[in-house]
Amino acid sequence: MVLLAISPKGLADALRISAKTGEAVWCGSEAVTESEFNASMPARVTRFVYGLTGDSATLLDDALETIAEHHPAQTIWVESAPGAA
């Protein structure tokens, strides 16, 4: 399984899960700054250089496609919150 975090809280939750399970974590640029990422993220975390929020569903679709290329046949869990568009 791969965890996709979109927000800082989602990333914190994904990291907590990943610490127990070893699952890969991917995140958008809104979840962690580049400098924080470079300074403190475990090797199993990958950060997109672009954000995953906004009006375009294409952003998320592109991210999911990229993750699937790197983790074929694995389930991808995507952070979501009630009321989020």
Structure commentary:
The chain is α/β, with parallel strands linked by helices. Strands 3-2-1-4 form a 4-stranded parallel sheet, with helices on both faces. The protein contains 3 helices and 4 strands, in the order βαβαβαβ. The two termini are 24 Å apart. The protein has one domain (2-78).
Mean pLDDT: 91
Q: Work out the count of structural domains.
A: 1
Radius of gyration based on Cα positions = 12 Å
Which structural category do the helix and sheet elements fall into? alpha/beta
What string, H for helix and E for strand, traces the elements in order?
EHEHEHE
Query: What overall form do the CA principal axes indicate?
Result: globular
Work out the helicity level.
40-55%
- Low-confidence segments, given as residue ranges, are none
Number of strands: 4
Beta-strand percentage range: 15-25%
